[in-house]
Specification:
About 10% of the residues lie in helices and about 5% in strands. It has about 500 residues and is largely without helices or strands. The protein has 3 domains: about 1-90, no CATH class; about 130-330, no CATH class; about 345-490, no CATH class.
């Protein structure tokens, strides 16, 4: 049982009327019998509802309808995410985004938009739960739809919900679910006619991904003269699912390929020293996918790239490793409570990316966070200082999580090569307005944890209030509320969030 959030009627009216312009009969509008003839109920006849007669609706007389959407706000109900944009105008009310970037102008801020380059009137469709919306996912269907019982014995080669939109053959079908990765087999799309971003590729089995014998190998990868799977120059074996085959034709046999459905960026090698960090030299003289944790699953397709969890590529282990199907393995979920709460890693666009991870850190730095009592949260707060009420220590899981305080693996070298300290965010304007080019820079950030207390927002009852111990709220009648956190209820109910100073 969970108590509903209390929002005073006066505050709700303030938020509704003082924010963005609203249509007729919204919450907080007065009945028609109380208006002055212009429909706004303020008595001035200008129709803007603020009573100052200027027609802009915000009450300050300057003609800007959005002024009351800019803080500072002291009431969390008005600006819960602490970005100084009032809830009445915020295009992502549960995400810190003071820039309000919304490239497709659909009302969903990019920071929360599952398809930030495709306008839509909804933002919840994500059938495979990988964090990429169906409208822009190259593999949008539920994973079960791609399965053919008994045809693939090696679970490493099953279609999984890997949040990777790479499309090697440019036919509009993502590598991780393509039944013929290296040869285009969907309509007329291909290297010379790349499938546009967001196109509704026709997956009619008679036109796209055809597989007459239903062996999970597309007909385009079958030699019509021999009726056998093809083998391209440089491949380690023919297209197939055996250990010596090379399903994605990238020069690595399935047995050793860290991501056997994702073609590796080819680095010729004679031995391991010729390869990037965490990579090894494979058969056919090609470097394997980097594998930072040594669990034989490449970082780009690993549910937990920095903590070994080899069970993720076994038939039984998959469900145990990622119970909520958000492509974050149990071994690296921020808290045990998150194992069953879907919260996929956010997809963003940056100019420096390593194995699917954005080369940035999300921690804002010491001095930017505080707990509900007002104590600063820092990376180095000694036990004595914490006991003395001088500061709070950033939790150990946050300190070691790649991409939070420390850069993801391989990024330090990649940034040095690029002459940068951190990657720069990219927008359509940076790539000539080409969505396909922007998506080639797609990468993943760590799971959202706005208060940096070690509990991801998806499983944190107080996502904007620092409380690494996740204490349960107990009301003044000594009744415990298991689904409510103590850090944002009771005496802390109207306390600004961790990032509001």
């Amino acid at each position: 049982m969970q108590r509903s959030v209390r929002i005073p009627t006066t505050l709700l009216t303030l938020v509704t009327l003082a924010g963005c312009p609203i249509g007729d009969k919204q919450i907080g509008d007065p009945p028609d019998s109380m208006v002055d003839g212009d429909g706004d109920g303020d008595g001035d006849g200008d129709g803007d509802g603020d009573g100052d007669g200027d027609g802009d609706g915000d009450g300050d007389g300057d003609g800007d309808p959005f002024d009351n959407c800019v803080g500072p706000f002291e009431t969390p109900s008005v600006d819960k995410d602490c970005d100084a944009i009032g809830i009445g105008c915020d295009n992502a009310t549960l995400h810190f985004n003071p820039d309000q970037l919304d490239q497709d102008q659909d009302g969903f801020g990019d920071v929360a938009d599952l398809c930030p380059l495709i306008a839509s009137n909804m933002n919840t469709s994500d059938s495979d739960k990988d964090g990429i919306g169906n409208a822009c996912d190259r593999c949008p269907r539920p994973i079960a739809d791609y399965s053919i019982d008994g045809s693939i014995s090696d679970a490493r080669l099953w279609v999984r919900n890997v949040p990777w939109n790479g499309d090697f053959d440019r036919d509009g079908i993502g590598d991780v679910c393509d039944n013929c990765v290296a040869i285009p087999n969907c309509g007329d799309y291909g290297p010379n006619n790349p499938a546009p971003h967001g196109a509704e590729v026709n997956e009619d089995p008679d036109l796209c991904q055809t597989d007459v014998n239903q062996d999970a190998i597309g007909d385009a990868c079958i030699d019509p003269n021999t009726n056998l799977p093809i083998m391209l120059d440089g491949a380690a074996g023919p297209v197939g699912f055996g250990p010596n085959d090379d399903f994605d034709q990238d020069g690595l046999s399935n047995a050793i390929d860290g991501c056997p459905r994702i073609p590796v960026v080819q680095h010729p090698c004679n031995d391991d020293v010729d390869c990037p960090p965490s990579s090894t030299c494979g058969d056919a003289g090609v470097c394997n996918h980097p594998d930072a944790d040594g669990d034989l699953v490449g970082d780009v397709c690993d549910t937990c790239a920095y903590t070994s969890n080899p069970m993720q590529v076994s038939e039984i282990g998959m469900a145990i490793d990622d119970e909520d199907r958000d492509f974050i393995g149990a071994a690296c979920e921020s808290h045990a409570d998150c194992n069953t709460r879907k919260g996929a890693r956010p997809i963003r666009f940056y100019d420096v990316v390593v194995e699917g991870s954005c080369c940035v850190t999300t921690y804002p730095g010491d001095g930017q966070l505080h707990d509900p009592s007002g104590l600063p949260v820092t990376r180095t707060c000694s036990p004595q200082d914490e006991q003395g009420g001088l500061c709070r220590q950033l939790p150990a899981p946050v300190l070691v999580a790649p991409g939070v305080v420390e850069l993801p693996g391989g990024c330090e070298q990649a940034l040095a090569d690029a002459g940068k300290q951190q990657a720069s965010a990219l927008t359509l304007a940076d790539v000539g307005g080409n969505p396909l080019e922007l998506w080639s820079h797609a990468c993943r950030l760590p799971p959202l944890d706005h208060d940096f207390d070690g509990l991801g927002d998806a499983c944190d009852p107080c996502p904007f209030a620092f409380d690494p111990f996740n204490e349960v709220y107990v009301d003044d009648q000594d009744m415990a509320w298991p689904d409510l956190g103590a850090a944002c209820n009771g005496v802390f109910e109207q306390v600004p969030g961790a990032m509001c100073m």
